[in-house]
Structures
1.
Amino acid sequence: MKPIRTPLAANEPYRLPPPLFDARCKACWFSVGLVALVVASFWSLDLQWSAFLSWEAGRSMARFAGEFFPPDLSAAFIRKVGAASIETLAMSALGTLLAGFFGLLLALPASRTHEDDPARARAPTRVLLNALRAVPELVWAALLLISAGLGPLAGTLALALHTTGVLGRLFAEAIENAPSGPAAALRTQGVGPVRVLLYATLPQVLPQLISYALYRWENNIRAAAILGVVGAGGLGQLLSFHMGLFQMGKTATVLCAMLLLVAAVDALSYAIRRYCSVR
Amino acid sequence: MKLPMNAALPARDPAWLGRVFWIGAALVLLWPMLVATEFRPWILFSAESRGPTWRFLAAFVPPAMDVDFLALVARETWRTVAIATTGITLALVIAVPATLMSTRVLSVSAVSGRMAPVPAMLRQVLRWVLVLLRSIPELVWALVFVRVVGLGPTAGVLAIALTYGGMLGKVYGDILESSDDHATHNLLANGGGRLQAFAYGLLPQNAAELTSYTIYRWECAIRSSVVLGFVGAGGLGQQLDNSTKMFAGGEVATMLLVFVALVALADRTSGWLRRALA
């Protein structure tokens, strides 16, 4: 009787899967590190799950949410919220405008426009931009309260400082990545750096700069809405004030105003960008 | 070489009228904004503001460097990172199921023709929930949770989890739906389950992008968790708030330096990881 031979597989013969952990595998070490980080985080924070997941907490949460209804819709309060919304809108717009101006001013020394450009100020300006960017708006606002006092001025300047860092860096990248042909053509003709910027570089990158600035405006309206929590004006100030007094109906109105404002700015900015890109 | 001057060059800028109009319109718009924000920057240099500002800034040098304080800062820095990491982990717990349920590509009824009305509605409702979660700023969530669970990191973790859960869920959905759905479609049409179609059809082509976005959000969460400290959610932000209120310039300087270094480190790590994935 002939022995039955197992048919050979048409593809590669059976092979063991690679071992789950290999000391030379970077992804394995990374995964181990990640798991360790997550476990250590959960372990080191004294999270009060019992306080949050208990029946008692659920009830107080439900009561808390229930107090939001009905929102306070009296004419006097609506007028107050409207004024605060306009203040928030103005803070975000002015902050972004200032940031666009100073961002461009700082982006010029922070960019190397051609190969022979020594760009000595590039490294120090980038350090400055990174420092401006690394500190969040709310921290800037808290620091600025000391010299600008309570009110929307501190908030506006805080938005401007942080956004200058963000936009300056984006603008510098845009200027460095612009096609170098037109600028080189002007430069070989002996045209000075200011006119090269005005007639070659800037017209090329301007649409991109505007689009970046509009995108940051969308972010800033969100930031401006909450800056008031530390006392820097706008809707946030109203929110923390009424929440502090447990007037939940008024808090609900302010929250609705925030959501509406953010949605409106998003829509407006989207429309402007559509309009700019269609043309 | 000179330009031929006989060409009919306009005597003045042809866009002159438009430019003047838009500059005028911008100024008219700018004025109420300046009024509404009480924009009087000279206040910064007025006599009564110069004194405290100068004293505060002068206290920045030298930064506070005593051992006790540095140990405190190190502990709070770790708490900041831990709050961000825990928050992102819980955000994934929200985002992953929400994505699986709301992705249109993974609909069995949509394999042949239109999606059935009930699943379509379910998906739409889920999307709205995600939009609501992420459009309330994390600071507001934190204010709410501080009222419910009290001061401490729990409020911060929950705030990050909810906001980032909404963001991740939305973007994961967008990434999955903009990818090539050929393989997924085939798997579903031949009787594969939804999870199988996800694991063998969608995940392989999108894993790098999904991971890279998650890492980017982790970096953002570290920044958020500092900010959340200002409303009492623990970590570096809370210490920074305390020191600012006590006008302790040296301590503020140290913490700002640590904070900038932390953000730079997270930035580097995230950039390195994302390049490795690309």
Note: The domain at 75-278 of chain A is CATH 1.10.3720.10 (MetI-like fold).
2.
Amino acid sequence: MSADNFNLEESIRSFDGDAIVTEGKQFTEITVHPEKLMALAMFLRDNSEMGFDFPACVSGVDYGNDLGVVYHLRSTKHNRTIVVKTRVSDRQNPVVESVTPIWPGAEYHEREIFDLFGIRFTNHPDLRRLFLDNSDGYPLRKDYSDDVNIVTK
Amino acid sequence: MEEHLKNSVTDGQEEYVLNIGPQHPSTHGVLRLVASLRGEIVTNIEPHIGYIHRGIEKMCESLTYPQIIHLTDRMDYLSAHINNEAVCLNVEKALEIDIPDRIKVIRTIMAELTRIQSHQLFWATFGMDLGGLTCFFYGLRDREKVLDIFEETCGGRMIVSYNCPGGLMHDIHPGFQKRVKEFIEYFRKTLPEYDQLLTGNVIFRERTMGIGKLTLGEAIAHGITGPTARASGFSCDVRKKEPYSAYDRIKFNEVLFTEGDTYHRYLVRMDEMRQSMDIIEQLIDNIPEGPYAVKMKPIIRLPEGEYYQRVETARGELGVYIISDGNKNPYRVKFRSPNFVNLSVLNMLSKGFKIADLIAISGSLDLIIPDIDR
């Protein structure tokens, strides 16, 4: 899009060569390995060119084989939004590092994702189920089945 | 002193855990707060939510886009129209449909009426939480007039479902403009009563000023939006930052304060009602002619991809994140609801204050529980 945005992509690429940076329909999207998420998150918040200080939205996604976490981050200084995505393929024991120490606003979002997708966030201050206190399974996963409460046509 | 009184748990020496809710008038819904107290001082608040978790995001995955709109009403039921608009805007953006001006203007007028009635109810219940029961009657009296306009226009009073992808369910009725103007004229006269009754009240000011301060840095880091964030000086109004519908063609001020306490969160909402009336006055005589809806295909399929749309509801930024795989049902829908995020600072704000202040602070966050649980 603009020259401004081009710089953004370049500087992310130069920070982490393995990160896949693409220009999405709306925002610049970065796909990063879960192990490198924390380093990238620190860079995105603390680098003055980046300045992504506002955690707008953290969503869990079930991609079929993989489970993913999507972070919508916004810079209040530059008024732009970036999307960071990470994927884990281990459905039995998916683990992603928590970004709550960097963006405290992610705390409830991550608890929600833990509750509904079963992704464990390491270093999370208070990782407990949020909505569903006594339930088995993770309802927002695509392979979740509940013969009693879900009616399939 | 009697031995059992000396060792009483309320003497401030021992921690006392008090359960507020889920059925409690001041939580405005089924929110349960587990409050740890030392005497009267709050040491920790642990919100327990999920009492009305309906799995709206899961339900969306098996519904079509026009059907999803009716679920969004049920999240923040006081911003029902704006929630509908968020999904519609997202679908229209994905399909790259140009929306005629008439629809944009009507949507904006209805959204601002929604904001006014939401803030009226905030004022009513906030006054009631702090012991001024008169506020409740005054607030609901005036809110009825907005709800009457909704009922005439959409058939629904709160759960309006007036938007649909591509426009509106049906056109406004011939008397719409007259009725809205009558309301604005009426409310311009009655809004000063609100200030006389509550804003200047000494007891009210003593109980809210300096209570529950949220700094600008905390607001940004915690992702706080809406009037709660604007009271701390965080300029986050989506209507200004990323104008949608008809907000790019009207003049209004983003209400900002820097104090960030309970009193200023209240003041932001009072001023926003005035701003909303200004917006409506600019638009009500200039509703362009044209169709009230764009003709859409009977089955709406979004092109494969991801779409994010945010709007400013009465409580902050609602984000709708849709992942489409090209089918008539979305693959995944995430609602980033403002109340869910705003609740997360309740513990931080109320630590060190008295239990009565907790009621004031949670009232000033203006929480709507169905929006938290979804």
Note: Chain A has a mean pLDDT of 83.
3.
Amino acid sequence: MTGRWRWPLRIGALGYLAVLVALPVGTVFYRAFDHGLAAAWDAITTTDALHALWLTVLVACIAVPLDTIFGVGVSLILARHRFPGAWLLDAFVDIPLALSPVVIGLSLILVYGKTGWFGNWLAARGITVIFSVPGIVMASAAVALPYVVREVLPVLQELGTEQEQAARTLGAGPWAVFRRITLPNIRRGLAYGITLTTARVLGEFGAVAIVSGAIAGKTETLTLYISDSIENLDPAGAYTGAVVLALFALAVLTVLTVTDRRRESWHGRAAK
Amino acid sequence: MADVGAPAPPGSGPATRLLDGRPGVDLSAVGRRAARIGGPALAVTYLSLLVLLPLAALLSNALSGGPAAFWRAVTQPEAVAALELTLVASLIVALVNSVAGLAIAWVLVRDQFRGKALVSALIDLPFALPTVVAGLTLLALYGPDSPFGVNLAGTRLGIGCALAFVTLPFCVRSVQPVLAELDRETEEAAASLGAKNTQVVRRIVLPSIAPAVLAGAGLAFARAVGEFGSVVLISGNLPFKTEVASSWIFSLSQSGDLSAASAVSVVLVLISLSVLLAIGWMRRRFDAPETV
Amino acid sequence: MHPRLQSVFVRPFPPRRRVRAGLLLVPALAVGLVVTGTGPAGAQGGSVALVAYSTPKPAYSVLATDFAKTKAGQGVTISPSFGPSGTQATSVTDGLPADVVNFSLATDMAKLVKAGIVSSSWDKGPTKGMVTDSIVSFVVRKGNPKHITTWADLVKSGVQVITPNVFSSGSAKWNLMAAYGAQLSQGKSKAQALAYLTTLLHHAVAQPASASAALQTFLAGQGDVLLDYEDDALYAQHQGEPITIVTPPQTILIENPIAVTKTAGPSAKAFVAYLLSPAGQKVWGQQGYRPVLPSVAATFHFPQPKVLFKIDKFGGWTLVNKQFFDPQTGLVAHIEQSLGTSTASS
């Protein structure tokens, strides 16, 4: 459809994307391999870089599933139930976006730091949150909190509840309804939500910089390592690190798209 | 059709009333009842631990010097200038990116061309790039040594450019799934009944995706308001001219004036929260008639 | 029946995979908890937790290696954390483990003394608690095309200056006090010196958030002159960046404080002793820092400005911070404000 509009739309949309995203991202890739593959490889295989990479992956593996479960849950609650204060919950979910990451980091310290609200309570139990992995996970999970909700909720609302109700009438339990009706319907939104969450967790800097203490080889994530490299005029390390992060995000996206497509074809066939 | 007299409660189309509105119909399963209470409780706990408690700490810190100090901190000329710049820039960027994001999502969903998968994969990358790298790259491309002869360094346009870069994924990704799920039969039916393309878009497509576009705009706005790393390099961070609010907050925290930093953050959050609430309200206005 | 519904009841959907995906969470969380247990601990035995400002990172990587070769340093690993000086100091008061702390200015050390983490006698040693010296230098494009050699040259028409934001960067404070002091040492009055600061900031085309961001901005092509730590500029030059370093005729002596915390063990003290020893000071010198030991400093040939003054000239950092750099009431805040309100409309 919209034959007359196809070309202007295509050129406009892709042009905007090219100038704003493709060029900068391309530049990062170009600069990473500017000094040759060997230099790029060396930059990313130092002990500290490898540890930073491992820590980043670990943090993503914890924070992303937590945010995903929370996101799907909240979306279901908001889309399917009515209760006083729902609008507040809806709005509060977005708060982490509006807070500068630096502020998120500072406010986490105000609560969980040594002199914070729970500082004594945590210290008495020998739990370190700030300047340790749990703090990094919390900061990452906090900044990436809204994405799954924001991707899934509109789809759920658009979807309506007809199918779910029908399934229930036919005797399906809530878990079965969720798994067989809701989940297949929201899968695309969910996939995007997870991708955004992962990408954000990987790329997070400000909040993590504050709560991690950036101890080399201990609490330094890959973004912190990258910023360190930039400060020390080692662009090869910085850009290679950035490429690794970008590739990681791409991999997540690809995995999600491929599983999505496979299921799509299954479903498509079964439905027809 | 226009049954929007009473504002619908958030997130619930009239259809859900069947499920929730009548006690005694569905409550046979005890587990579900537990889930209904337990689910929200868990969600709220998670939200509290990560967001609400820190926010409360921030608020109490902001007010630790008394209301007068709070007021002084947020009405200080440099703070006001930074807040103003941030909010205006974020609004403009949210608007521009909503249009651009809709166009890109449309092209990705409805158009067919080679390399579409690649384009689609590209969209989320601004997210995964650490903001420091993004800032550095934007400065290299659109700064004084720009290969295209475009120098945005130290200008407000540069700020807009950086904000647009980091917020574009929202505007595309919010609309894309909804657009993909959109029932094309209705469009085709309308077209076969003689509706023009523009009519189909205006009457059928736009109302369906409007909530998603608004949601994307809201996310973009909120993210833009809090953005720091990617902006400060290209903006030059000049006080009163190109200094954004989060940078001023960073300065205050570095100067050891944590309560002033908290105060400005609180104002920033309140403003973006009200914008988000307004957007949420508009979104529900769109939702309400549609589910009838 | 709706096709989706049909699939629920007619076609068995493989549910187990979902469950397994959920189970993946458990090990992920478990790993998280295990790591928690092995999180950063204070320096017991062979580990020294070093918390320092950003600039000396390359120097420390050399120093740590060399220290490990000494008798006292055998088997000792240095576990470093680098970041903006102010942030690092705040982090230590918030619980960041630290045995040795090294900041860009004494104000940050004062925070730790106040918090009871560092002894108040930290500045009583032979070097008065300082580990390195440096000066504020001009960094210009290679070959100095705009012929910038004096403070007066910075405020000539058409010259664009880059100096970090004074409220977020310790380096910027050194820069402005160098500019201010340079005016005073040329016989100008305090009012004239302040007027100079106003003009200087008027010439600032960027005030990046940190010294590092300022260097990045300059290297990306913006501005004609960057005010920077001499050591940072030397490092950039060493890395092959196309810059020339100009030593201004009058400038401030930067002194970077170091201390061990009250809980630090013997290896931390040995590390600091090494840093202050002739061997350690020689490495500092090779890394672009001016050694604090006169005997070692004499073997290096750092350019000598005509007039070199210290922060004590203005009453020390505590007073200077309050007078000049309070973000709400300081003199510099007023200058920014006057510049902002006069040019914001243009």
Note: Confidence is low (pLDDT under 50) at residues 1-28 of chain B.
